[in-house]
Structure formats: C-alpha cells, structure tokens
Amino acid sequence: MRSMHFLSGLPRSGSTLLAALLRQNPRFHANMSGPLAGMVNAMLGEMSDRNEFSMYITNEQRRRVLSGLFENYYGAEFKAEVIFDTSRTWCSKLPMLCELFPRVKMIACVRHVSWVVDSIERLIRNNALQPSSIFNFQPGGTVYTRAEGVANGEGMVGFAYNALKEAFYGEHAQHLMLLQYETLVRDPAKAMAAVYEFIGEPLFQHDFDNVQFDAETFDQRAGTPGLHAIGKKVLARERTTVLPPDVFRRFENDAFWLNAQANVHGVRVV
Q1: Sign of CA dihedral 232, 205, 180, 187
Q2: pTM for the whole thing?
Q3: Does residue 40 lie in a domain region?
Q4: In this predicted model, what pLDDT tens digit does every residue of 158-203 receive, in sequence order?
Q5: Transferase as a keyword (predicted)?
Q6: 3-class DSSP assignment, residue 81
Q7: Does 4 map to a domain?
Q8: What residue numbers bound the domain in which 183 lies?
Q9: Is residue 83 part of a domain?
Q10: Domain count, the chain
Q11: The sheet that has 28-29: what strands, in order across it?
Q12: The domain that contains 161 carries what CATH number?
C-alpha cells in the first residue's frame, strides 16, 4: 500500500520547487496544487446536514467515500509508491487527513510574509498587460489594495497563514514539519535530508543543478505567467523589495515559527 503525504503552507514559499525536487525520485509523485482539496470540500459539504438525506450517511461512510476519492484520483496510472498532494487548504484539514491516513506527514513551506507579499506584487508588475486570477482578473487597484486583498482572512496569503497556525498549534502538530524557503534555496541538501527523515523514506540523491518543472500553460490561463516558474539551479537570489516601506513593515514580524517558546508542540522547523 502506497504512502500519502501532503505539501501545504504559504504561497510563494517553495512548494513548487519542493515538488519539482521530490519528483526527481522515481518512487515519488509530486506536483503543483491540484483539484483534490476542492473535491474533498465539495464532498464534505454534500455529506453534511444541508443534504436532506444526511441521516443515512454515517461517519464510517464519510470516511470510505473520502478515502475512495483519494484512492481513485491517484489511480492505476500513477505508479509512484509515495504520493504528495499539494494545496494551501491542507493545513486546515489536518484533523481530517489524520482520520483518513493515520501515518500522514505534512510538509508546510513557509517564508517571511513580507517577501511572500513582495513576490506576489512582483508577479503582478511583471505581467502588467495581463490581469491575474489572483485578483479575479480585475485590472484596478494599487499595491496597498492588493496587499490588503491577499492578506485578509479569505485572501491568498491570509487564509494560508491562518490555516498554517491552526495546524501548528493544533492537536495533530506531530504530523507537521515546516520547511523554510530560505533553507530550501540556500541549503537544498539539508532541506531534502530533513524531508526524507520526516517521512521515513531512504534518502535519494537529488540534482540541484538541473531542476525541471513546466506549468506554463496553467500560468498563462491564470493570467500570471511565471506563477510556477522555477530556476534550473537551486540558489538564493538576493534582491530589494518592490513594496513601499510601510507595506513591507506591516508583515515583517509575522514569522511566528521562529519563536521557539511558542512552539508548544515541538514542530520541526527546518
């Protein structure tokens, strides 16, 4: 029986790069965010009490339906022994995933939030002629409204940040590891060794100078070319922020995972 693990965390924090590295291992399957998390949410809703026939649905049936969703989505055409599914939603679903997969491991990619917002804003500016799906293809706004939009509780960054805290401080935190973007790009060998140790798999020799991942078609459709682009070689690229100083400062103290005293469950932060 193959293993099921999950990649989650903050946007623009290395999950695509991590997936590209993991898939170098022929035993692994990993990819960018896909539809499975949305399908799970839809099924949970349809099996809730808003369904007039929900009295006929037991928790054991819910468990079988949801387990079957994962099993059938990753059907026979996926030959990998270890599956990694990616979604920022998964951090908010850790209790459910532990119900379905008692040995599950979740790797959440994190990055200083100021640089997450900076990365999103840089994408928007690099594609000035194409409104992005990130902002529902709306062409208006300023850096201030965009930062506010992604940072609110339902925004691209705010939701993921709150979900991450939910998992980090929750009762299933032992299934969670946080992988810092800074570690992944500056010391990828250390980062990958930590991932393999966490999931209990034998270490694989990755090629950090020849990383391949192609999501150009998806990114074009999203109106955001470069959204999932990664460099061929893993390295840290130093740059100055494109954000106004007050916007950058707004988020600079949000890296709660760096506060060892607040890590009450001893979550591993690499």
Answers
A1: negative
A2: 0.92
A3: no
A4: 999 999 999 999 999 999 999 999 999 999 999 999 999 999 999 9
A5: yes
A6: coil
A7: no
A8: 88-269
A9: no
A10: 1
A11: 28-29, 82-86, 3-9, 106-110, 176-180, 268-269
A12: 3.40.50
